[in-house]
Amino acid sequence: MVGKTGSQGPVVVTHALGSYHVYVETGALARLPALIQELLPDRRVALIADSRVDSIYRSGEWGTGLLEAESLTFEPGEKSKTRESWAELTDQLTERGFGRDAALVALGGGVTGDLAGFVAATYMRGVPYVQVPTTLLAMLDASVGGKTGVDTPRGKNLVGAFHPPAAVVADPNTLKTLPEREYRGGMAEAVKHGMIADESYLAWIESNAEAIGRRDPGTLIHLVRRSVEIKAQVVSDDEREAGRRAILNAGHTIAHALEQSSGYMIPHGEAVALGLIAESRLAEALGIGAAGLSRRVAALLARLGLPVSLPGRIPRARLLDSMSRDKKNKRGDIHFALATRAGAMHRSDTWTTAVPFHRIEAALAAIEETTQD
Ligand SMILES: NC(=O)c1ccc[n+]([C@@H]2O[C@H](COP(=O)([O-])OP(=O)(O)OC[C@H]3O[C@@H](n4cnc5c(N)ncnc54)[C@H](O)[C@@H]3O)[C@@H](O)[C@H]2O)c1
Ligand SMILES: [Zn+2]
């Protein structure tokens, strides 16, 4: 199962309306224009990227036919994942006369994928788009699954739509320019994939932490590919989160609260790292999770250069308040996707568990400690 996968074909993701391919290949970006031509013939293509990514791909080194597409840009960062940006991009498309024959390319990180995907979901009641993830986080997680949307002042991803892409093209070569901190953030989602679905993958990450850290190309291909396979398997046939898909929210109830209450100063990947630790400690405290999981996860995240304790004090009350507004809540309870052990998630009637406030507070202590062994 865990072996050389770089030479295999695309990963197939199925959903209610069909399926799409995720290409994980070094050099795949060069084939993008031909792929668009094949998948979306006769469409007028608009490329959406944040200004930082746009300037990298305009520098000439990439020299792809990408540059021929008309491009729309926005300011980099989570702060741009808003209805205002959605409105600006949509207005630009209409001003430039894009019609129902439009197709979009989302080139960039998870912010671009979610935002451009939401533009695609709503423009002219929906136009096709291709995801071209250029951050590790977007490659191994955000670009797969068809979730698009924006944040509101009340919280993350509160407005959005399911709109599966026509294809996902992940080229690990693009990660060469990614700043170190952004790169490390993506590894938190890979650890999550191992934790929720595949103990042998978690062990593989542990054994290869050093090669992952130095972005060894062969190791990267395997990392992205195995994570995409896991996410594809979980979301296939479950595009509307009817059931098992909820396990992908592991670590994210606390992560979203951290992001929101820090005013998005804590990036998504780092928030997920902290969320995975606190939520696996929560599972242990509730008697659901096997003892030792939170320690194992924290040790691995630390080796991958991710934070294992909060940088500053965020008042617990603010975190709890933010969690209580999470859209995944049912009837006021806060719901968590909890691990029973590495590679397996707890299930009763559903894949999530309602947890009382005081238990959550106790689990937050796991990431409030100033030192961690
Ligand atoms: N839809 C989903 O299923 C899903 C899943 C996980 C996360 N997300 C979302 O993804 C977002 C986080 O994504 P992200 O961490 O990729 O953030 P991001 O898109 O903001 O990218 C991070 C930074 O890296 C820069 N960048 C991107 N590619 C680069 C490259 N190749 N070289 C140099 N710089 C580059 C960007 O300009 C940006 O400044 C969050 O909003 C999160 O909610 C969505
Ligand atoms: Zn995430």
Outline of this structure?
By secondary structure, this protein is of the alpha/beta class. The protein contains 14 helices and 13 strands. Zinc ion is lined by residues 141, 189, 252, 268, 272.
Provide an overview of this structure.
The chain is α/β, with parallel strands linked by helices and 373 residues long. The protein is 43% helix and 17% strand. The strands form four sheets. A seven-stranded mixed β-sheet has the order 1-2-9-6-5-3-4, sandwiched between helices. A two-stranded antiparallel sheet has the order 7-8. Strand 11 and strand 12 form a beta hairpin. Helix 10 packs across helix 11 and helix 11 runs antiparallel to helix 12. The N terminus is likely disordered. It binds nicotinamide-adenine-dinucleotide and zinc ion. The site of zinc ion (ZN) has 5 residues, from helix 11.
Task: List the keywords.
single chain; 373 residues; alpha/beta; 7-stranded mixed sheet; two-stranded antiparallel sheet; 13 strands; binds nicotinamide-adenine-dinucleotide; binds zinc ion
How does the SSE layout of this entry go?
Layout: E1 11-15, E2 18-24, H1 32-39, E3 44-50, H2 51-57, E4 70-74, H3 83-95, E5 102-108, H4 110-122, E6 129-133, H5 136-142, E7 147-152, E8 155-162, E9 167-170, H6 180-197, H7 199-207, H8 209-213, H9 217-235, H10 252-261, H11 268-285, H12 293-303, H13 316-324, E10 334-336, E11 339-341, E12 344-345, E13 353-355, H14 357-368
Parallel strand pairs: 2-9, 3-4, 3-5, 5-6, 6-9
Antiparallel strand pairs: 1-2, 7-8, 10-13, 11-12
Helix pairs in contact: 3-4, 5-6, 5-9, 6-7, 6-9, 6-11, 10-11, 10-13, 11-12, 11-14
Bound molecules: nicotinamide-adenine-dinucleotide and zinc ion.
Residues 50, 52-53, 56, 76-78, 81, 108-112, 114, 134-135, 137-138, 141-142, 145, 147, 156-157, 174, 177-178, 182, 185, 268-269 line the site of nicotinamide-adenine-dinucleotide (NAD).
